[in-house]
Design a protein that fits this description.
With 430 residues, this protein is an alpha/beta fold. It folds into three domains: 2-172, Globins (Globin-like); 181-279, Translation factors (Elongation Factor Tu (Ef-tu), domain 3), CATH 2.40.30; 296-422, 3-Layer(aba) Sandwich (Rossmann fold), CATH 3.40.50. It contains twelve helices and twelve strands. The structure holds 1,4-dihydronicotinamide adenine dinucleotide.
Length: 430
């Protein structure tokens, strides 16, 4: 869980209906805040050592939590690094926890999709404080430990309140549920050489809640080699239809130091049509404002097109509205360009929708003007006249370096940061 606490500037709008101001965390004394701040340099220096020890102990004492954590991120060290960064950032913002509201929303939505419960927090707190004490040694006296206990409690209260709000909202939504619901794969559709769409239908055949375009679900599969379940988040790649969900998953092979995707391979290889899996309610605050009539520029790299297809289809389904959409997509080539024919058809049938597709290289049979428009990576000099529009909102999803590059380009073209919305699933370290 807290491994996703990545407190950086993301420019995500505050979209969750439950607001941060409804939360009343238990306070810290001035002295406790000073003490927490005094530990910032030590956290900066020893943070990863602390959090690595923390995870090791936590999972030794509570092996059931392996069902909740992404074990690959443990092995690659991403999770300890992200948590260390988060603890440090929390200490830096101890005087103004509201500065963390964007991160609390993003992480809270992810926690809710994983079924994190209030009684998980004391367990995490106990092991985190023990690891801080062990690594920093005599520097951590009782006063320091008490200050960190109070600080941790404050943060835990914020998350618990936020997540309880999401759960309550979820069960009140028609068709909603809490925790995992059993689904089966009702259809498997290859979308490119490496992406397969999975249509997921609830086993109980009951109605599904409607969701907002851009939201994701967690799916959970049993991984025999680990002896535990592993959850992963996937954006919903179609518009809401109350009958089934669609996720579109890229198969991740091992590459350089990155291990093969544990769940993406299980899904592609070992989950035929008819197979069952656990699915969470839809969550996530990277969502399209469906009531806006101003232009939407949907920018995606590779498999990052999944939430964009949901947004695009939702916009065009709204009768009587001709909201302008520019769909900017970058792929390595046509063989890995998913949902290509859907996009071609949507553009042909909807004069308010236009597209610009970049391929890094041309594969055999890729046709200029039909499959793609430009060779290379997204080049704003080539598309700014078409894609920089007054009052537009810009939605970005794709590999981290792709998102960083597009964000930077948009800002340098004068787009206001409030208009730029990014989906951030990964850690800040990739
Ligand atoms: N929200 C998230 O955190 C997402 C993360 N990812 C991660 O990214 C990985 C790669 O996804 P793929 O579909 O294989 O994408 P990819 O590696 O095929 O890249 C897609 C396109 O993005 C562009 N791109 C890549 N790096 C760039 C850079 N540094 N600057 C500018 N443009 C760049 C290129 O045009 C490339 O063709 C996934 O395996 C996943 O782990 C992908 C989608 C969403």
């Amino acid at each position: 869980m807290f491994a996703q606490l990545v407190f950086r500037r993301l420019n995500l709008p505050w979209l969750a209906r439950r607001t941060y101001s409804s939360v009343t965390p238990r306070g810290l004394t001035m002295q406790q805040k000073q003490i927490v701040k005094s530990t910032i340099p030590a956290l900066q220096e020893h943070g990863v050592t602390i959090t690595t020890l923390f995870y090791k102990r936590l999972l030794e004492k509570h092996p059931d939590l392996k069902n909740v954590f992404n074990v690959t991120h443990q092995a690659t060290g991403e999770q300890p690094a992200a948590l260390a960064h988060a603890v440090w950032a929390y200490a830096v913002n101890i005087d103004q926890p509201k500065a963390l509201s964007t991160a609390v929303s993003r992480i809270g939505h992810k926690h809710a999709s994983l079924g994190i419960m209030p009684d998980h927090y004391p367990i995490v707190g106990e092991h985190l404080l023990a690891a801080i004490k062990d690594v920093l040694g005599p520097a951590v006296n009782d006063q320091v430990l008490d200050a960190w206990k109070a600080a941790y409690q404050q943060l835990a209260d914020i998350f618990i309140n936020f997540e309880q709000g999401l759960y309550q909202q979820g069960v009140k939504t028609p068709g909603g549920w809490k925790g995992w619901r059993k689904f089966y794969v009702s259809k498997k559709v290859p979308e490119s050489d490496e992406i397969i769409s999975f249509h997921l239908t609830p086993l109980d055949k009951g109605v599904l809640p409607s969701y907002q375009p851009g939201q994701f679900v967690s799916v959970r599969c049993y991984v025999p080699e680990l002896g535990s379940y592993q959850p992963r988040q996937y954006s919903l790649s179609d518009m809401s239809n109350r009958i089934n969900f669609r996720i579109s998953v890229k198969r991740e092979f091992a590459k350089d130091s990155k291990p093969a995707g544990q769940i993406s391979n299980v899904l592609h290889e070992s989950l035929p049509e008819g197979a069952e899996l656990d699915v969470s309610m839809p969550f996530g605050d990277f969502i399209l404002d469906i009531n806006a009539s101003t232009p939407a520029v949907l920018i995606s790299g590779g498999v990052g097109l999944t939430p964009m297809m949901s947004m695009l289809k939702t916009i065009i389904s709204r009768q009587g509205q001709a909201r302008q959409v520019v769909f900017v997509h970058a792929a390595r080539n046509g063989r890995v360009h998913a949902m290509k024919s859907d996009l071609i058809q949507i553009v042909a049938e909807n004069p308010s929708v236009s597209r610009v597709v970049f391929y890094e290289e041309k594969a055999e049979n890729d046709t200029h003007g039909l499959d793609y428009d430009h060779i290379g990576r997204v080049d704003w000099a080539k598309i700014k006249d078409k894609a920089i529009l007054p009052d537009a909102d810009y939605y970005i999803c794709g590999p981290q370096p792709f998102m960083k590059a597009q964000n930077k380009n948009l800002e340098s073209l004068g787009v206001s940061p409030e208009r730029i919305h990014m989906e951030v699933f990964g850690s800040p370290h990739d």
